[in-house]
Amino acid sequence: MSEEAPQPDPAGPDRLAAFEEHRRMLFGIAYRMLGSVADAEDLVQDSWLRWSQVTTRVDNPGAFLARTVTNLALNRLGSAAVRREAYVGPWLPEPLVTAPDTAEEVEMAESVSYAMMVVLESLSPLERAVFVLKEVFGFSYPEIGEALERSEASVRQVGHRAKSHVQARRPRFDAPAEVRRQVTNEFLAACLGGDLNRMLELLAPSVTAWSDGGGRVKAAIRPIEGADKVARFLLGVLANDPLEDPRVYEVDVNGRPGLLIDAAGRVDSVVVLEIEDGRIDELRILRNPDKLTHLRPGGPAGPA
Hints:
Distance between the termini: 72 Å
Helix content: 40-55%
Largest sheet: 7 strands, mixed
Radius of gyration: 22 Å
Strand order of the largest sheet: 1-4-5-6-7-2-3
Number of helices: 12
């Protein structure tokens, strides 16, 4: 009887190399599932701990790690649901912020637009898991069924339902990057200059604005609809709640032009604009400091 070949050390270089090969995938799954950069990074580390403790041979490390991080995310979402029921105002995902025209994390950011993240939040946790694994990372339904311990027929049904829901709510915005950046900069200038008429020209009549303060800082607790209401809300915030030593930076937020605003040496807010036909159709302002801890003051780029 021949001896079995010795297995590599689970925490050794081969196991580490396999994990590093799939690290971006793990973060991508976790971020899409949770909408949180910090929580996604935590789950990547938890996945490494699980991976390093495996003592048997794993023929498909990618599938094993995807199953691990997906189930960790589903467990995390169970406790997150309770917290969100008591959340004050709109809940927005944490942003992936990069400098414009740089390669740093751009591929990841562009593949998951902020508007799409909002759509994913409308799916149930199971629908989100199946959709992300199938439509984003290309896992087959048999593989997903095994990962989630459900039948292929069951996850296929869930996948079709999730895909139909996403397609119905998929963001329509497809303005060229240069148009998005131009409109973003012109709108910033109009806001800072108090130019209500120019703001109304740049806002679509049906524009909706969301602001997420999480009860920690001032923010609207309900969506604001209509160009006039949105413009006057923003001008009122600038006039009545001025920031200390504010600085504005051009950034890309999940691959789209956005703004990062510092005040008193800390990140105060991130602004995401969705633009259609040269006008702003959706505007999201993230101010909850708990969701900005992964960002550094000064932004990844210079002042706007």
